[in-house]
Protein backbone atom coordinates (compact mmCIF):
# COMPACT_ATOMS: atom_id res chain seq x y z
CA UNK A 1 0.00 0.00 0.00
CA UNK A 2 1.42 3.39 -0.87
CA UNK A 3 1.88 5.64 2.09
CA UNK A 4 0.08 8.95 2.39
CA UNK A 5 1.62 11.64 0.25
CA UNK A 6 4.21 13.78 1.95
CA UNK A 7 3.09 17.35 1.45
CA UNK A 8 5.93 18.59 -0.68
CA UNK A 9 4.70 21.84 -2.20
CA UNK A 10 6.62 21.34 -5.43
CA UNK A 11 5.05 17.95 -6.06
CA UNK A 12 1.64 19.27 -6.87
CA UNK A 13 2.95 22.36 -8.64
CA UNK A 14 5.12 20.27 -10.89
CA UNK A 15 2.17 18.07 -11.80
CA UNK A 16 0.00 21.07 -12.48
CA UNK A 17 2.47 22.29 -15.05
CA UNK A 18 1.64 19.14 -16.93
CA UNK A 19 -2.05 19.46 -16.55
CA UNK A 20 -2.58 16.60 -14.18
CA UNK A 21 -2.06 18.11 -10.80
CA UNK A 22 -5.55 19.06 -9.78
CA UNK A 23 -8.65 20.94 -10.63
CA UNK A 24 -8.42 24.37 -12.21
CA UNK A 25 -11.93 25.38 -11.23
CA UNK A 26 -12.02 28.73 -9.59
CA UNK A 27 -15.71 28.86 -8.64
CA UNK A 28 -17.96 27.61 -5.93
CA UNK A 29 -19.25 24.75 -8.05
CA UNK A 30 -16.03 22.97 -7.33
CA UNK A 31 -16.14 23.46 -3.59
CA UNK A 32 -14.91 19.93 -3.05
CA UNK A 33 -11.93 20.55 -5.32
CA UNK A 34 -10.56 22.84 -2.67
CA UNK A 35 -9.94 19.74 -0.57
CA UNK A 36 -6.30 18.88 -0.99
CA UNK A 37 -6.36 16.18 -3.68
CA UNK A 38 -3.49 14.25 -2.20
CA UNK A 39 -1.73 11.70 -4.31
CA UNK A 40 0.05 8.91 -2.46
CA UNK A 41 3.74 8.31 -2.86
CA UNK A 42 4.82 6.48 -5.99
CA UNK A 43 5.62 2.85 -5.10
CA UNK A 44 9.22 3.36 -6.23
CA UNK A 45 9.39 6.86 -4.74
CA UNK A 46 9.58 8.51 -8.20
CA UNK A 47 8.74 12.23 -8.01
CA UNK A 48 7.36 14.74 -10.49
CA UNK A 49 10.08 16.57 -12.40
CA UNK A 50 9.53 19.87 -10.61
CA UNK A 51 10.76 18.34 -7.37
CA UNK A 52 14.25 18.15 -8.84
CA UNK A 53 14.57 21.89 -8.38
CA UNK A 54 13.69 21.60 -4.72
CA UNK A 55 15.98 18.70 -4.03
CA UNK A 56 19.53 19.25 -2.85
CA UNK A 57 20.30 15.53 -3.19
CA UNK A 58 21.53 13.49 -6.14
CA UNK A 59 19.65 13.14 -9.42
CA UNK A 60 19.49 9.57 -10.73
CA UNK A 61 19.50 10.78 -14.31
CA UNK A 62 23.20 11.62 -13.94
CA UNK A 63 24.00 7.87 -13.96
CA UNK A 64 22.41 6.79 -17.25
CA UNK A 65 25.55 7.22 -19.34
CA UNK A 66 24.93 7.49 -23.08
CA UNK A 67 21.15 7.15 -22.61
CA UNK A 68 21.24 10.71 -21.25
CA UNK A 69 20.75 12.23 -24.69
CA UNK A 70 17.20 10.83 -24.86
CA UNK A 71 14.53 13.01 -23.25
CA UNK A 72 12.20 11.09 -20.90
CA UNK A 73 9.39 10.99 -23.46
CA UNK A 74 11.60 9.41 -26.09
CA UNK A 75 13.20 6.99 -23.66
CA UNK A 76 9.72 5.76 -22.74
CA UNK A 77 8.86 5.24 -26.42
CA UNK A 78 12.12 3.36 -27.10
CA UNK A 79 11.41 1.05 -24.16
CA UNK A 80 8.05 0.10 -25.69
CA UNK A 81 10.06 -1.86 -28.27
CA UNK A 82 12.25 -3.77 -25.83
CA UNK A 83 11.52 -7.38 -24.90
CA UNK A 84 11.20 -8.88 -21.45
CA UNK A 85 14.79 -9.96 -20.87
CA UNK A 86 16.28 -6.72 -22.21
CA UNK A 87 13.87 -4.73 -20.06
CA UNK A 88 15.10 -6.65 -17.03
CA UNK A 89 18.77 -6.28 -17.96
CA UNK A 90 18.50 -2.60 -18.73
CA UNK A 91 16.53 -2.01 -15.55
CA UNK A 92 19.33 -3.61 -13.55
CA UNK A 93 21.93 -1.06 -14.68
CA UNK A 94 20.87 1.95 -12.60
CA UNK A 95 17.96 3.32 -10.64
CA UNK A 96 16.86 5.73 -13.35
CA UNK A 97 16.54 2.93 -15.90
CA UNK A 98 15.05 0.63 -13.27
CA UNK A 99 12.23 3.14 -12.82
CA UNK A 100 11.80 3.54 -16.58
CA UNK A 101 11.71 -0.23 -17.17
CA UNK A 102 9.14 -0.72 -14.44
CA UNK A 103 5.84 0.90 -15.60
CA UNK A 104 2.99 -1.55 -15.81
CA UNK A 105 1.92 -0.27 -19.26
CA UNK A 106 5.15 -1.77 -20.71
CA UNK A 107 4.50 -5.08 -19.01
CA UNK A 108 0.86 -5.10 -20.02
CA UNK A 109 1.98 -4.93 -23.66
CA UNK A 110 4.41 -7.79 -23.06
CA UNK A 111 1.60 -9.82 -21.50
CA UNK A 112 -0.70 -9.18 -24.45
CA UNK A 113 2.01 -10.40 -26.85
CA UNK A 114 2.26 -13.76 -25.08
CA UNK A 115 0.73 -16.78 -26.78
CA UNK A 116 -2.85 -17.19 -25.52
CA UNK A 117 -2.19 -20.40 -23.55
CA UNK A 118 0.88 -18.90 -21.88
CA UNK A 119 -1.08 -15.82 -20.86
CA UNK A 120 -3.93 -17.99 -19.56
CA UNK A 121 -1.56 -20.05 -17.46
CA UNK A 122 -0.12 -17.11 -15.54
CA UNK A 123 -1.67 -16.20 -12.20
CA UNK A 124 -2.63 -12.56 -11.76
CA UNK A 125 -0.09 -11.21 -9.29
CA UNK A 126 -1.46 -7.71 -8.71
CA UNK A 127 0.49 -6.00 -11.49
CA UNK A 128 1.29 -6.79 -15.12
CA UNK A 129 5.01 -6.83 -14.37
CA UNK A 130 4.70 -9.33 -11.56
CA UNK A 131 2.27 -11.43 -13.63
CA UNK A 132 4.59 -11.63 -16.65
CA UNK A 133 7.50 -12.46 -14.37
CA UNK A 134 5.38 -14.90 -12.29
CA UNK A 135 6.66 -12.99 -9.30
CA UNK A 136 4.63 -12.97 -6.09
CA UNK A 137 4.38 -9.57 -4.44
CA UNK A 138 6.58 -10.58 -1.47
CA UNK A 139 9.41 -11.49 -3.82
CA UNK A 140 9.48 -8.29 -5.81
CA UNK A 141 12.54 -6.15 -5.13
CA UNK A 142 11.87 -2.96 -3.24
CA UNK A 143 14.08 -0.45 -5.03
CA UNK A 144 14.17 3.12 -3.74
CA UNK A 145 13.99 5.44 -6.74
CA UNK A 146 13.29 8.62 -4.79
CA UNK A 147 16.07 10.40 -6.67
CA UNK A 148 14.27 9.82 -9.99
CA UNK A 149 12.37 12.93 -11.08
CA UNK A 150 10.13 12.43 -14.07
CA UNK A 151 6.68 13.57 -15.12
CA UNK A 152 6.60 10.84 -17.76
CA UNK A 153 6.75 8.26 -14.98
CA UNK A 154 4.78 10.15 -12.36
CA UNK A 155 1.86 11.37 -14.49
CA UNK A 156 0.22 7.97 -15.13
CA UNK A 157 0.67 7.10 -11.47
CA UNK A 158 -1.00 10.37 -10.43
CA UNK A 159 -3.88 9.66 -12.83
CA UNK A 160 -4.30 6.19 -11.35
CA UNK A 161 -4.68 7.74 -7.94
CA UNK A 162 -6.99 10.67 -8.57
CA UNK A 163 -9.76 11.19 -6.10
CA UNK A 164 -12.92 10.80 -8.19
CA UNK A 165 -15.05 12.48 -5.54
CA UNK A 166 -13.93 15.94 -6.63
CA UNK A 167 -15.49 15.38 -10.07
CA UNK A 168 -18.62 13.43 -9.31
CA UNK A 169 -19.94 15.44 -6.39
CA UNK A 170 -21.38 18.98 -6.23
CA UNK A 171 -23.07 18.65 -9.61
CA UNK A 172 -24.39 22.13 -10.46
CA UNK A 173 -28.17 22.22 -10.22
CA UNK A 174 -28.59 23.18 -13.86
CA UNK A 175 -26.62 20.11 -14.98
CA UNK A 176 -28.39 17.54 -12.86
CA UNK A 177 -29.88 14.70 -14.83
CA UNK A 178 -33.61 14.17 -14.29
CA UNK A 179 -34.40 11.40 -11.85
CA UNK A 180 -37.84 9.83 -12.11
CA UNK A 181 -39.54 7.00 -10.35
CA UNK A 182 -40.63 5.19 -13.51
CA UNK A 183 -42.31 6.00 -16.84
CA UNK A 184 -45.02 4.46 -18.95
CA UNK A 185 -44.18 3.81 -22.58
CA UNK A 186 -46.60 6.57 -23.59
CA UNK A 187 -44.79 9.09 -21.39
CA UNK A 188 -41.43 7.97 -22.72
CA UNK A 189 -42.50 8.06 -26.37
CA UNK A 190 -44.17 11.46 -26.06
CA UNK A 191 -41.58 13.35 -24.14
CA UNK A 192 -38.44 11.52 -23.12
CA UNK A 193 -36.88 9.76 -26.11
CA UNK A 194 -34.36 12.57 -26.57
CA UNK A 195 -33.55 13.25 -22.94
CA UNK A 196 -31.17 11.47 -20.60
CA UNK A 197 -32.77 10.41 -17.33
CA UNK A 198 -32.45 7.94 -14.48
CA UNK A 199 -35.34 5.73 -13.37
CA UNK A 200 -35.11 4.81 -9.72
CA UNK A 201 -37.95 2.31 -9.60
CA UNK A 202 -37.89 0.30 -12.80
CA UNK A 203 -35.65 -2.74 -12.41
CA UNK A 204 -36.43 -3.68 -8.83
CA UNK A 205 -38.03 -6.97 -9.89
CA UNK A 206 -35.15 -8.26 -11.94
CA UNK A 207 -33.88 -11.47 -10.33
CA UNK A 208 -30.26 -10.46 -11.10
CA UNK A 209 -30.69 -7.54 -8.70
CA UNK A 210 -30.44 -9.89 -5.76
CA UNK A 211 -28.57 -12.72 -7.44
CA UNK A 212 -25.56 -10.97 -8.96
CA UNK A 213 -23.43 -10.04 -6.01
CA UNK A 214 -19.75 -10.15 -6.81
CA UNK A 215 -19.35 -13.22 -4.58
CA UNK A 216 -22.19 -15.09 -6.29
CA UNK A 217 -20.82 -14.25 -9.71
CA UNK A 218 -17.46 -15.59 -8.63
CA UNK A 219 -19.04 -18.72 -7.21
CA UNK A 220 -21.32 -19.44 -10.18
CA UNK A 221 -19.25 -18.19 -13.10
CA UNK A 222 -15.66 -18.22 -11.82
CA UNK A 223 -14.61 -20.55 -14.64
CA UNK A 224 -16.55 -18.83 -17.41
CA UNK A 225 -14.41 -16.78 -19.79
CA UNK A 226 -15.52 -13.24 -20.48
CA UNK A 227 -14.16 -10.66 -22.85
CA UNK A 228 -12.32 -7.78 -21.21
CA UNK A 229 -11.01 -5.56 -24.01
CA UNK A 230 -8.09 -7.45 -25.57
CA UNK A 231 -8.31 -10.56 -23.39
CA UNK A 232 -10.70 -13.42 -22.65
CA UNK A 233 -10.32 -14.16 -18.97
CA UNK A 234 -12.02 -16.48 -16.55
CA UNK A 235 -14.20 -14.46 -14.20
CA UNK A 236 -12.10 -15.63 -11.23
CA UNK A 237 -9.00 -14.09 -12.72
CA UNK A 238 -10.77 -10.89 -13.70
CA UNK A 239 -12.05 -10.61 -10.12
CA UNK A 240 -8.45 -10.86 -8.82
CA UNK A 241 -7.46 -8.18 -11.32
CA UNK A 242 -10.31 -5.96 -10.12
CA UNK A 243 -9.16 -6.28 -6.55
CA UNK A 244 -5.57 -5.33 -7.27
CA UNK A 245 -4.19 -3.51 -10.30
CA UNK A 246 -2.34 -0.28 -10.95
CA UNK A 247 -3.74 0.57 -14.36
CA UNK A 248 -4.58 4.14 -15.20
CA UNK A 249 -7.39 2.77 -17.41
CA UNK A 250 -8.38 -0.55 -15.86
CA UNK A 251 -9.36 -3.39 -18.17
CA UNK A 252 -13.13 -3.32 -18.56
CA UNK A 253 -15.15 -6.52 -18.85
CA UNK A 254 -17.57 -5.86 -21.71
CA UNK A 255 -19.10 -9.06 -23.01
CA UNK A 256 -21.89 -9.37 -25.55
CA UNK A 257 -22.18 -13.15 -25.42
CA UNK A 258 -22.74 -13.21 -21.67
CA UNK A 259 -26.30 -14.58 -21.81
CA UNK A 260 -25.16 -17.65 -23.74
CA UNK A 261 -22.04 -18.07 -21.62
CA UNK A 262 -23.92 -17.75 -18.33
CA UNK A 263 -26.84 -19.78 -19.68
CA UNK A 264 -29.38 -17.24 -18.51
CA UNK A 265 -32.67 -16.30 -20.11
CA UNK A 266 -33.45 -12.72 -21.03
CA UNK A 267 -37.07 -11.69 -21.51
CA UNK A 268 -40.45 -12.25 -19.98
CA UNK A 269 -40.14 -16.00 -19.58
CA UNK A 270 -40.83 -17.44 -16.16
CA UNK A 271 -37.24 -18.12 -15.18
CA UNK A 272 -35.63 -15.15 -16.93
CA UNK A 273 -32.75 -13.36 -15.19
CA UNK A 274 -33.92 -9.93 -16.37
CA UNK A 275 -35.99 -8.34 -19.10
CA UNK A 276 -36.26 -5.20 -21.19
CA UNK A 277 -38.14 -2.52 -19.23
CA UNK A 278 -41.63 -1.86 -20.62
CA UNK A 279 -41.19 1.90 -20.60
CA UNK A 280 -38.85 1.89 -23.60
CA UNK A 281 -41.55 0.26 -25.72
CA UNK A 282 -40.95 -1.62 -28.94
CA UNK A 283 -37.39 -1.90 -30.19
CA UNK A 284 -37.51 -1.47 -33.96
CA UNK A 285 -34.23 -3.33 -34.45
CA UNK A 286 -36.14 -6.45 -33.36
CA UNK A 287 -37.45 -6.68 -36.92
CA UNK A 288 -33.93 -7.83 -37.78
CA UNK A 289 -34.25 -10.92 -35.55
CA UNK A 290 -31.00 -12.87 -35.44
CA UNK A 291 -29.48 -10.44 -37.91
CA UNK A 292 -29.66 -7.44 -35.61
CA UNK A 293 -26.29 -5.96 -34.65
CA UNK A 294 -24.72 -6.66 -31.26
CA UNK A 295 -27.07 -5.06 -28.78
CA UNK A 296 -26.60 -6.20 -25.20
CA UNK A 297 -23.59 -6.36 -22.94
CA UNK A 298 -22.61 -7.40 -19.46
CA UNK A 299 -20.29 -4.77 -18.00
CA UNK A 300 -18.07 -5.38 -14.98
CA UNK A 301 -15.28 -3.16 -13.77
CA UNK A 302 -13.36 -1.87 -10.78
CA UNK A 303 -13.55 1.66 -9.44
CA UNK A 304 -12.17 4.16 -12.04
CA UNK A 305 -12.95 1.86 -14.96
CA UNK A 306 -15.40 3.20 -17.50
CA UNK A 307 -16.00 4.45 -21.00
CA UNK A 308 -14.35 7.49 -22.58
CA UNK A 309 -16.49 9.92 -24.59
CA UNK A 310 -18.40 8.29 -27.42
CA UNK A 311 -21.78 8.14 -29.13
CA UNK A 312 -23.52 4.79 -29.25
CA UNK A 313 -23.39 2.80 -32.49
CA UNK A 314 -25.64 3.18 -35.53
CA UNK A 315 -27.62 6.08 -34.07
CA UNK A 316 -29.22 3.79 -31.49
CA UNK A 317 -30.44 4.75 -28.04
CA UNK A 318 -29.53 2.69 -24.99
CA UNK A 319 -30.34 1.92 -21.40
CA UNK A 320 -27.74 1.06 -18.82
CA UNK A 321 -28.85 -0.67 -15.62
CA UNK A 322 -26.57 -0.75 -12.59
CA UNK A 323 -26.81 -4.06 -10.72
CA UNK A 324 -23.94 -3.45 -8.28
CA UNK A 325 -21.88 -0.32 -7.69
CA UNK A 326 -22.48 3.17 -9.07
CA UNK A 327 -21.60 5.10 -12.23
CA UNK A 328 -21.03 8.79 -12.83
CA UNK A 329 -22.24 9.98 -16.25
CA UNK A 330 -21.42 13.23 -17.99
CA UNK A 331 -23.36 13.77 -21.23
CA UNK A 332 -23.79 16.26 -24.05
CA UNK A 333 -26.40 16.51 -26.81
CA UNK A 334 -25.51 15.30 -30.32
CA UNK A 335 -24.34 18.61 -31.78
CA UNK A 336 -22.32 19.80 -28.76
CA UNK A 337 -18.59 20.29 -28.99
CA UNK A 338 -17.25 18.44 -26.00
CA UNK A 339 -14.06 19.93 -24.56
CA UNK A 340 -11.07 17.66 -25.23
CA UNK A 341 -12.97 15.53 -27.76
CA UNK A 342 -12.04 16.04 -31.40
CA UNK A 343 -14.23 14.66 -34.15
CA UNK A 344 -13.09 14.22 -37.75
CA UNK A 345 -14.98 16.06 -40.49
CA UNK A 346 -17.19 13.09 -41.36
CA UNK A 347 -17.55 12.09 -37.68
CA UNK A 348 -15.92 8.77 -38.48
CA UNK A 349 -13.08 9.28 -36.03
CA UNK A 350 -13.17 10.57 -32.50
CA UNK A 351 -9.87 11.52 -30.97
CA UNK A 352 -9.70 11.98 -27.28
CA UNK A 353 -6.06 11.24 -26.61
CA UNK A 354 -6.77 10.86 -22.96
CA UNK A 355 -7.63 8.38 -20.30
CA UNK A 356 -10.77 9.11 -18.29
CA UNK A 357 -8.58 10.49 -15.50
CA UNK A 358 -6.68 12.79 -17.85
CA UNK A 359 -9.93 14.06 -19.34
CA UNK A 360 -11.38 14.70 -15.90
CA UNK A 361 -8.28 16.56 -14.76
CA UNK A 362 -7.88 18.65 -17.88
CA UNK A 363 -11.41 19.26 -19.17
CA UNK A 364 -14.06 18.43 -16.60
CA UNK A 365 -14.25 21.96 -15.17
CA UNK A 366 -14.66 23.55 -18.59
CA UNK A 367 -17.19 20.90 -19.67
CA UNK A 368 -19.23 21.36 -16.52
CA UNK A 369 -19.67 25.05 -17.24
CA UNK A 370 -21.25 24.46 -20.66
CA UNK A 371 -25.02 24.99 -20.66
CA UNK A 372 -25.69 21.69 -22.49
CA UNK A 373 -23.85 19.60 -19.90
CA UNK A 374 -25.90 16.91 -18.14
CA UNK A 375 -24.44 14.95 -15.22
CA UNK A 376 -25.75 12.29 -12.92
CA UNK A 377 -25.02 9.25 -10.80
CA UNK A 378 -26.77 5.99 -11.53
CA UNK A 379 -26.63 3.73 -8.48
CA UNK A 380 -27.36 0.06 -7.94
CA UNK A 381 -30.99 -0.69 -8.75
CA UNK A 382 -31.33 2.27 -11.12
CA UNK A 383 -31.38 2.48 -14.90
CA UNK A 384 -30.20 5.32 -17.11
CA UNK A 385 -31.42 6.31 -20.57
CA UNK A 386 -28.88 7.32 -23.24
CA UNK A 387 -30.68 9.06 -26.10
CA UNK A 388 -29.49 8.48 -29.65
CA UNK A 389 -26.49 10.58 -30.62
CA UNK A 390 -25.68 11.86 -27.14
CA UNK A 391 -22.02 12.04 -26.13
CA UNK A 392 -21.24 10.31 -22.87
CA UNK A 393 -18.31 9.55 -20.59
CA UNK A 394 -18.92 7.07 -17.80
CA UNK A 395 -16.82 6.19 -14.80
CA UNK A 396 -17.46 3.61 -12.10
CA UNK A 397 -17.21 5.32 -8.73
CA UNK A 398 -17.19 1.86 -7.09
CA UNK A 399 -16.50 -1.55 -8.52
CA UNK A 400 -19.66 -2.82 -10.10
CA UNK A 401 -21.80 -4.83 -12.48
CA UNK A 402 -24.16 -3.43 -15.13
CA UNK A 403 -26.30 -4.53 -18.04
CA UNK A 404 -26.80 -2.41 -21.11
CA UNK A 405 -28.88 -2.69 -24.24
CA UNK A 406 -29.06 -0.62 -27.41
CA UNK A 407 -32.36 -0.15 -29.19
CA UNK A 408 -34.31 1.90 -31.71
CA UNK A 409 -37.33 3.47 -30.03
CA UNK A 410 -40.67 4.02 -31.67
CA UNK A 411 -42.04 7.47 -30.92
CA UNK A 412 -44.84 9.50 -32.53
CA UNK A 413 -42.55 11.86 -34.45
CA UNK A 414 -40.21 9.06 -35.58
CA UNK A 415 -37.25 11.36 -35.22
CA UNK A 416 -34.92 8.71 -33.82
CA UNK A 417 -35.93 6.06 -36.33
CA UNK A 418 -35.14 8.55 -39.08
CA UNK A 419 -31.75 9.15 -37.42
CA UNK A 420 -30.96 5.43 -37.52
CA UNK A 421 -32.09 5.21 -41.15
CA UNK A 422 -29.92 8.19 -42.08
CA UNK A 423 -26.97 6.68 -40.23
CA UNK A 424 -27.29 3.30 -41.97
CA UNK A 425 -27.88 4.95 -45.35
CA UNK A 426 -25.32 7.75 -45.27
CA UNK A 427 -22.51 6.44 -43.08
CA UNK A 428 -22.13 2.80 -44.19
CA UNK A 429 -18.43 2.88 -43.29
CA UNK A 430 -19.33 3.75 -39.69
CA UNK A 431 -22.06 1.13 -39.27
CA UNK A 432 -20.94 -1.44 -36.70
CA UNK A 433 -21.96 -4.62 -34.95
CA UNK A 434 -23.62 -6.40 -37.91
CA UNK A 435 -22.36 -9.82 -38.96
CA UNK A 436 -19.85 -9.58 -41.77
CA UNK A 437 -22.11 -11.35 -44.28
CA UNK A 438 -24.76 -8.64 -44.04
CA UNK A 439 -23.73 -6.53 -47.01
CA UNK A 440 -26.25 -3.73 -46.76
CA UNK A 441 -27.73 -3.16 -43.30
CA UNK A 442 -29.76 -0.19 -44.55
CA UNK A 443 -31.54 -2.31 -47.16
CA UNK A 444 -32.08 -5.14 -44.75
CA UNK A 445 -33.59 -2.85 -42.12
CA UNK A 446 -35.89 -1.00 -44.53
CA UNK A 447 -37.03 -4.26 -46.12
CA UNK A 448 -37.95 -5.72 -42.72
CA UNK A 449 -39.64 -2.52 -41.58
CA UNK A 450 -41.65 -2.43 -44.82
CA UNK A 451 -43.02 -5.84 -43.92
CA UNK A 452 -43.85 -5.14 -40.30
CA UNK A 453 -44.27 -1.36 -40.00
CA UNK A 454 -44.96 -0.08 -43.55
CA UNK A 455 -46.53 3.21 -42.48
CA UNK A 456 -43.91 3.93 -39.87
CA UNK A 457 -41.21 3.32 -42.47
CA UNK A 458 -42.83 5.58 -45.05
CA UNK A 459 -43.10 8.45 -42.58
CA UNK A 460 -39.60 7.94 -41.20
CA UNK A 461 -38.09 7.89 -44.70
CA UNK A 462 -39.99 11.03 -45.54
CA UNK A 463 -38.59 12.71 -42.44
CA UNK A 464 -35.09 11.46 -43.25
CA UNK A 465 -35.36 12.92 -46.75
CA UNK A 466 -36.57 16.23 -45.42
CA UNK A 467 -33.68 16.33 -42.99
CA UNK A 468 -31.05 15.61 -45.62
CA UNK A 469 -32.74 17.99 -48.07
CA UNK A 470 -32.61 20.78 -45.55
CA UNK A 471 -29.06 19.94 -44.74
CA UNK A 472 -28.16 20.18 -48.41
CA UNK A 473 -29.74 23.62 -48.66
CA UNK A 474 -27.77 24.79 -45.69
CA UNK A 475 -24.55 23.37 -47.10
CA UNK A 476 -25.13 25.13 -50.41
CA UNK A 477 -25.78 28.37 -48.59
CA UNK A 478 -22.52 28.17 -46.67
CA UNK A 479 -20.60 26.76 -49.64
CA UNK A 480 -19.76 23.33 -48.20
CA UNK A 481 -19.69 20.06 -50.05
CA UNK A 482 -21.75 17.04 -49.08
CA UNK A 483 -19.05 15.42 -47.02
CA UNK A 484 -18.38 18.53 -44.98
CA UNK A 485 -22.07 19.04 -44.45
CA UNK A 486 -22.19 15.81 -42.50
CA UNK A 487 -19.94 17.26 -39.83
CA UNK A 488 -20.40 19.33 -36.70
CA UNK A 489 -23.37 21.36 -37.90
CA UNK A 490 -26.45 19.26 -38.22
CA UNK A 491 -29.53 21.15 -39.17
CA UNK A 492 -32.71 19.79 -37.71
CA UNK A 493 -31.03 16.91 -35.92
CA UNK A 494 -31.50 15.89 -32.36
CA UNK A 495 -34.72 17.66 -31.52
CA UNK A 496 -33.25 21.13 -31.20
CA UNK A 497 -35.54 22.77 -33.74
CA UNK A 498 -38.92 21.28 -33.13
CA UNK A 499 -38.42 18.10 -35.12
CA UNK A 500 -37.66 16.24 -31.95
CA UNK A 501 -39.93 14.50 -29.54
CA UNK A 502 -40.64 17.03 -26.88
CA UNK A 503 -37.18 18.48 -26.52
CA UNK A 504 -36.72 19.97 -23.11
CA UNK A 505 -40.17 19.02 -21.90
CA UNK A 506 -40.88 17.43 -18.60
CA UNK A 507 -43.43 14.73 -18.01
O1 LIG B 1 -21.23 1.45 -18.25
C1 LIG B 1 -20.49 2.04 -19.03
O2 LIG B 1 -19.28 2.11 -18.90
C2 LIG B 1 -21.11 2.74 -20.20
C3 LIG B 1 -21.33 1.82 -21.32
C4 LIG B 1 -21.64 2.52 -22.58
O3 LIG B 1 -21.64 3.70 -22.71
C5 LIG B 1 -21.97 1.73 -23.75
O4 LIG B 1 -22.14 0.51 -23.62
O5 LIG B 1 -22.11 2.30 -24.83
FE1 LIG C 1 -22.33 4.18 -24.71
Task: Characterise this structure.
By secondary structure, this protein is an alpha+beta fold. It folds into 3 domains: about 120 residues, no CATH class; about 240 residues, Cupin (Jelly Rolls); about 70 residues, no CATH class. Helices cover about 35% and strands about 15% of the residues. The strands form 4 sheets. The chain has a 7-stranded mixed sheet with strand order 1-2-13-8-15-6-5. The longest helix is centred in the last third of the chain and has 25 residues. The N terminus and C terminus are likely disordered. The protein binds 2-oxoglutaric acid (AKG) and fe (ii) ion. Fe (ii) ion (FE2) binds next to β7.
Briefly say what this structure is.
The chain has 507 residues and is α+β, with helices and mostly antiparallel strands. It has helices at 9-17, 72-79, 84-91, 95-100, 104-113, 116-121, 128-132, 151-160, 165-168, 185-192, 207-211, 214-221, 235-243, 258-262, 356-368, 415-426, 441-452, 454-478, 482-485, and strands at 178-180, 197-199, 225-228, 231-234, 253-255, 296-301, 306-310, 317-324, 326-332, 342-343, 350-351, 374-379, 383-386, 391-396, 400-407. It is globular and about 75 Å long.
Determine the number of helices (DSSP H or I, runs of at least 4 residues): 19
> Level of helix content?
25-40%
> Structural class of the helix and strand makeup?
alpha+beta
CATH superfamily of the largest domain: Cupin
Bound ligands: 2-oxoglutaric acid, fe (ii) ion
Which spans of ≥5 residues are poorly predicted at pLDDT below 50?
1-36, 480-507
Annotation, overall tally of beta strands: 15
What is CATH's topology name of the largest domain?
A: Jelly Rolls
Amino acid sequence: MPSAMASIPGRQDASLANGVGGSHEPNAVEASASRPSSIPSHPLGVKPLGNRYLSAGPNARASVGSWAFLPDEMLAVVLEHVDKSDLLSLGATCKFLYAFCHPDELWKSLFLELPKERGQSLRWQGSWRRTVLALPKEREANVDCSNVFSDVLHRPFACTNIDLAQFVTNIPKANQMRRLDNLTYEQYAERWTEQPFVLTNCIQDWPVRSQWTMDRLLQDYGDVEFRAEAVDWRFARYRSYMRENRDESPLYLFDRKFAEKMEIKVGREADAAYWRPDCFGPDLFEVLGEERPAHRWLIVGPERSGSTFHKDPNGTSAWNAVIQGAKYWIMFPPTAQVPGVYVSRDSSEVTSPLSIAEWLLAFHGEARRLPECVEGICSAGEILHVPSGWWHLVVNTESGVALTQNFVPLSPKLNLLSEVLLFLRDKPDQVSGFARDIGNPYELFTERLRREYPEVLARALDLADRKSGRKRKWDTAVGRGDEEGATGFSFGFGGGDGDGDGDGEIA
